[in-house]
Amino acid sequence: MNPQVLKVEKRISADVTRLFRAWLNAEDFSRWFLSGEMIGIDSVTMDPRPGGKFLINMTLDGKILPHEGEYITIDEPHKLVFTWRSHATENRDTLVTVTFTDLTNVDRSKGLKEKPQTLVTLIHEELLNDIQIKMHNQGWTSILESLNQWIGV
């Protein structure tokens, strides 16, 4: 078995701190964390601290699909690292790192700042095969697009 790595990126027109905090507030998170058209969120519980756990109960065709993990690193507003376990990882722990890079330009000569721009980079490690890579690529891509749409509201 050669564990594989998936990388998904999305440039979002929003402040880096606001985007970071959207990942750690259960109420906000449940509004945007959607991995596909047919997927819903039943419930979200979070204990956002290193060693704290989270549980995301997604729904599909009337079934609840638990996704759970543990926060390893919370470095506001730059980096989140957590384990990720679900049916799509064969109930094995995998590792997700989300980084938030502020791309906002500041024109120091004029003291002007552009509208906020953040690059969200998600790296998912320890996936076992091409099927897991494909499933998670679709899921994480949809999730980052949902975050972009939610944050723009």
From TrEMBL:
Domain of life where this protein originates: Bacteria
Chain ranges of the Activator of Hsp90 ATPase homologue 1/2-like C-terminal domain: 14-149
Pfam families (alphabetical): AHSA1
InterPro entries on file: ASHA1/2-like_C (IPR013538), START-like_dom_sf (IPR023393)
Family: Belongs to the AHA1 family.
The protein's name in its UniProt record: Activator of Hsp90 ATPase homologue 1/2-like C-terminal domain-containing protein
